[in-house]
Specification:
This protein is an alpha/beta fold. The chain has 3 domains: 50 residues, Up-down Bundle (Single alpha-helices involved in coiled-coils or other helix-helix interfaces); 215 residues, P-loop containing nucleotide triphosphate hydrolases (Rossmann fold, 3-Layer(aba) Sandwich), CATH 3.40.50.300; 51 residues, no CATH class. 47% of the residues lie in helices and 11% in strands. The chain is built from 12 helices and 7 strands. The chain has a 7-stranded parallel sheet, sandwiched between helices. Helix 8 links the parallel strand 6 and strand 7. The radius of gyration is 22 Å and the shape is globular. The two termini are 37 Å apart.
């Protein structure tokens, strides 16, 4: 996006609400941009499109690299669009620490889905953001909802335990695992297992089929050992082969069953409200950190603080205290 491009926010809002893909893509580009004027326009867009759609289903798909997330999303996505649903896929790619650019490019791995008129795929570079999602994924979800998409899938980077953050922005989290990936129980951290709403052993085909069934039994025993959820939901452990298109329908049925149970018990709305508050806390932290390091006084003090830290004159905690106090004093009225 050109730096000097003038944006009409009302026109962009109208385009998004009318389901125009160029307008949606432009809006997401604005929230991804670090330019102050783009951030200003993005905030105006978010204010105009902040009303959530309770009928939209947000699904997070997580798992280690190589587990077949993209292949499953394409198979599941084709199933959904052929049912007449509009699907948006927000994929978060590993990215260069130097350029921040996306490395893999998921559109090239979902060519059939990308070509479908009812599907929209947007790849965002994770850059230095932890949590398996991009910094502005929440805003992108809202824009996709405003554009009329029925289902929004968020595919995470695949960085393991740090992917817990995606749970804070979706209605259901599907965790993918490989068959025969070693010690299934110790191979995944308890925290991610506990928040997953369904587990899927992917690539359950050919010589992998017996290993997949064995992994399924391991994970069923593991999930059963967790404290029961208040609404009685016990995450199912499913088998699928995205390449052979087997088990895909069952995946969607399980997600639908979970959403229905959530709405029946009033948990769906409560969860989305809780996610807004968590999003607020994260955004405040991000913006405070950005303001801190952009502060001229902090920038001037950092070289000397680093020198003293390196020479052992200051401890890490004392160095942080000096920088924070200097920042606070510089912003007192």
């Amino acid at each position: 996006m050109k730096n000097n491009l003038s944006i009409s926010v009302p026109k962009l809002v109208k385009g998004i609400v009318n389901g125009e893909i160029p307008a949606l893509s432009k809006a997401i580009s604005l929230v991804e941009s670090k330019l102050p004027i783009h951030q200003k326009w993005a905030q105006e867009l978010e204010a105009a499109l902040s009303k959530e759609n309770p009928n939209t289903i947000r699904v997070g798909i997580s798992g280690v690299p190589g587990v077949g997330k993209s292949t499953l999303i394409e198979a599941l996505g084709m199933y959904l669009v052929e049912k007449g649903l509009r699907l948006a896929v927000l994929t978060i790619d590993p990215s260069s620490q130097q350029s921040g650019g996306s490395i893999l490019g998921d559109k090239t791995r979902m060519d059939q889905l990308a070509a479908h008129k009812s599907a929209y795929i947007r790849t965002t570079a994770a850059a230095s953001t932890l949590g398996g999602v991009a910094q502005n994924t929440r805003s992108s979800i809202l824009f996709c909802e405003a554009a009329g998409f029925d289902v929004i899938i968020v595919e995470t980077v695949g960085v393991g335990q740090n992917e817990l953050e995606v749970h804070e922005m979706v209605d259901a989290l599907l965790l993918l695992q490989l068959p025969g990936a070693g010690d299934e129980i110790q191979g995944i951290k308890r925290g991610l297992l506990e928040v997953a709403d369904a587990l899927l052993i992917n690539k359950a085909d050919g010589a992998q089929a017996p290993l997949a069934k064995k992994a399924q039994q391991y994970f069923k025993a593991s999930v059963h050992g967790f404290r029961p959820r208040e609404n009685g939901w016990e995450p199912p452990v499913l088998l699928a082969s995205a390449i052979e298109n087997r088990g895909v329908k069952e995946v969607w049925q399980s997600i639908g069953n979970f959403i229905s149970l959530q709405k029946k018990h009033g948990d769906f709305e409560l969860k989305r409200t809780s996610q807004k508050i968590l999003g607020l806390h994260r955004l405040v932290s991000q913006r405070l950190e950005a303001s801190f390091y952009a502060d001229k006084k902090v920038q001037n003090e950092i070289p000397d603080i680093k020198r003293q830290l390196t020479n052992g004159i200051l401890s890490i905690s004392k160095a942080a205290e000096i920088l924070i106090d200097g920042f606070r004093n510089g912003h007192k009225e």
